[in-house]
Amino acid sequence: MDRIDFAGVDAELSDEERAVRESVARFVDAEALPLISECFAESRFPHELVKPMAELGLLGSSIEGYACAGLNAVSYGLICQELERCDSALRSFVSVQSSLCMWPIHAYGDEAQRERWLPAMARGEIIGCFGLTEAHGGSDPLNMLTHAKRQGGDWILNGSKMWITNGPIADLAVVWALTDEGVRGFLVERDMPGFSATAIERKLSLRASATGALFFDDVRVPASNLLPGTEVGLKAPLSCLTQARYGIAWGVMGAARACLDESLRYTRERQLFGRSLAATQAVQIRLAEMARKITLGEVLALHLGRRKDRGALRPVEVSMAKWNNCRSAMEIAREARDLLGGAGITLEYGALRHALNLESVITYEGTETIHQLSVGRELTGLNAF
Q1: Catalytic annotation present for 365
Q2: Positions of CATH 1.10.540.10 in the chain
Q3: CATH number of 128-225
Q4: Phi/psi at 256 (nearest 5 deg)?
Q5: Which superfamily, per CATH, for 235-380?
Q6: Distance CA 89, CA 151 (A)
Q7: Contact between residue 175 and residue 214 where contact means Cβ atoms under 8 Å apart
Q8: Residue 158 phi/psi, 5° resolution?
Q9: Crossing angle for the helix pair 235-269 and 281-309, nearest 10 degrees?
Q10: Where in the chain is the domain with CATH 2.40.110.10?
Q11: For 273, left (φ over 0), alpha (ψ -120 to 50), or beta?
Q12: Checking DSSP bridges between strand 211-222 and strand 154-165, what pairing results, if any?
C-alpha cells in the first residue's frame, strides 16, 4: 500500500503507535483482504477473523487490565483505520465490541461484572452488542419504548431494538431501557428466557457485518446485571457513542485510503489514447482532491486522538470529525468508482463496496444531520433538535 503522507502524520506517531498500525496492516493484508469480497458477496460475517483479532489485542484495546492491551487512543484510532481499509464490517465489529460493550462495562460496571465479562470478551470468547436504537425512534433515543420494571430483586425487560451490529451473533447485549427512575443500562445474556435476536437480511450495505433486531419478552434480568454506575438518563449511552464515533473518524479514512490506493494503481496501469490515465490533468486533479480530503481527515483524527489521550476531548469535536470524515470518505469512494470505469462495479475492486458500506457508516451512531445540529448548537447556543 502506498502510504502517501502529505501532512507528516507518520512522523507524529510514537514507535509503539507505528508498531500497532503495522501489525494490524499485516493482518489485514494477509488474512482479511483475501476473503472480504466473498464475505460481502455472500452476506457473511467472517467469524474466522475474530480469534486472530483477539490475539492481536484489538478487542478492548484501550482498557487497562482484564486481559486487554491498554493502548492509547491514537493506537485505537489506527486500529480502526487499518481494519476499515479492509471493510467497514471489520471496524464495526471491533468498535461495537470495544467501545459500545467492553467500555461501558469497564466504565459503569462493578468489579464482579468486569471480571466476569471483560477478559472473555478480550479473548473473543464472548461477543457483545449494544442495544439503544429502536425502529420507531431512530435518532431520538429518548423516544424509546423498551422498558424495565422491578420485580423483587430482578428486573423484567420488554421491548425491542433495531439495526444492532453483532446482534445475531452476540452472547451479551448492553441494553438501554426506560425504568421508573429513567434510562438505565442492563447486561442481557443470550440464554435468558424471552430474549431473541434475528438477522436483518437483503442488505445492500455492510453485507459482511452481522446486523439484527433484538426482542425482549418478559426477560428476567437479575439485579447483578444492572450497570450500577450509569446515571439516570442518556448521558451513559451517549458517552459510549462518543467513544465509538471517535473510532469511526479514523476508520473511514482507512476506507478512503483504500480507494485512493486502488485508483492510483488502476490509473497508472490503464492505457487510453496512447498514455496512462494517471498522466492526464483531469485524473490527476481528481486524485489530488482525494489526497487533500484524506490529509485533512487524518490530521483531524490525530488531533482528536491526542486530545482524547489528555482527557480534553469534547463530544462536539467528535461530531465535527465524524461528519467531516464520513462525508469525505463517501465522496472519495464514489470518485474512485468512477475512475475505475465499468470495472468499478465488480467485486474485483473495492471502491463500490466501500461506497455502499459508507452509506451506513454516515448514518449509524448519529446521522450526518444530527452531527451538523450538534455543531450548530455549539455555534448558536440554541437547541434545534
Answers
A1: yes
A2: 10-122
A3: 2.40.110.10
A4: -65, -40
A5: Butyryl-CoA Dehydrogenase, subunit A, domain 3 (1.20.140.10)
A6: 39
A7: yes
A8: -135, 145
A9: 150
A10: 128-225
A11: left
A12: antiparallel
Q: Copy the grid coordinates of residue 138.
A: 431512530
The total of other beta-carbon atoms located within 10 Å of residue 232's CB is 12
**Dmax over Cα atoms in the chain, in whole Å?**
80
Rounded to a whole number of angstroms, the CA Rg of the chain reads 21
The three grid cell numbers given for residue 77, joined into one nine-digit string: 484510532
DSSP, res 355: H
pLDDT in tens, the chain (385 residues): 456 899 999 999 999 999 999 999 999 999 999 999 999 999 999 999 999 999 999 999 999 999 999 999 999 999 999 999 999 999 999 999 999 999 999 999 999 999 999 999 999 999 999 999 999 887 788 789 999 999 998 999 999 999 999 999 999 999 999 999 899 999 999 999 999 999 999 999 999 999 999 999 999 999 999 999 877 778 899 999 999 999 999 999 999 999 999 999 999 999 989 999 999 999 999 999 999 999 999 999 999 999 999 999 999 999 999 999 999 999 999 999 999 999 999 999 999 999 999 999 999 999 999 999 999 999 999 999 8
Cell numbers representing residue 87 in the block: 471493510
Name residue 380's amino acid.
Answer: T
Report, at the CATH architecture level, how domain 10-122 is classified. Orthogonal Bundle (1.10)
Catalytic residue among 201, 365, 368, 378: 365
Q: Cα separations (Å) of 193 from 64, 133, 165, 255, 282? A: 33, 22, 22, 40, 61
Contact 208, 50 (CB under 8 A): no
Per DSSP, the three-state class of 5 is coil
